[in-house]
Write a structure and sequence with these properties.
Blueprint (H helix, E strand, L loop, with lengths): L1 H11 L3 E7 L5 H14 L4 E7 L10 H13 L7 E11 L2 H13 L4 E6 L7 H6 L2 E4 L7 H19 L8
Parallel strand pairs: 1-2, 1-4, 3-4, 3-5
Helix pairs in contact: 2-6, 4-6
Length: 171
């Protein structure tokens, strides 16, 4: 029975979490911070950050056209079985503890892969909103798309540390 519990626990903690972002950052301190938490996440889940290059020559594109082109690129990176959550100012806000409970719920439901998406400068096209399973807002404040990566990866790490009863959340 003990071995079965251990196996079940290992199976649950291997959920794949992807942070899919439009654009890249050149800010070394942000890259370093994201890498720091991504390395820590190895103990809890399979984590990856995927950067979709920003569109080139956007001056000739309308806001709608730009969102449509970004949607094509985003949709090419997600599978039909992924649980997709948009990081959007209109989404549901969570406390860190409630976010950890949400991750725990997905684990208990045997969700294999969760993809969190940070869109481009104009937000998400309707195709992406239609594909999404939900939306999360990190704050009523607006953050740069580069900083959101660091804040959110840290929150994923915090959520797992809360679930494991580790002191990080209160350190």
């Amino acid at each position: 029975k003990k071995g079965l519990s251990l196996f079940f626990c290992q199976k649950i903690t291997r959920m794949k979490i992807t942070l899919l972002v439009v654009g890249k950052t050149n800010d070394a301190y942000l890259i370093e911070g994201v890498e720091k938490y991504a390395k820590r996440l190895i103990h809890y889940c399979k984590f990856q950050l995927i950067e979709i290059p920003e569109l080139k020559n956007t001056k000739s594109l309308s806001e709608k056209q730009q969102k449509e082109k970004e949607a094509e690129l985003i949709l090419s990176k997600i599978s039909n079985t992924d649980l997709v959550m948009l990081l959007d100012e209109t989404g549901k806000q969570f406390s860190s503890i409630d976010f950890s409970k949400q991750i725990n719920n997905w684990q208990n439901q045997s969700v294999g892969a969760v993809v969190f998406i940070v869109g481009g400068p104009y937000g998400f096209d309707q195709k992406i909103k239609a594909r999404a399973n939900g939306e999360i807002s990190l704050s009523k404040m607006t953050f740069s798309h580069q900083m959101v990566r660091l804040f959110f990866v840290e929150q994923i790490y915090r959520a797992f540390s809360i679930l494991k009863g580790e002191p990080y959340h209160h350190a």
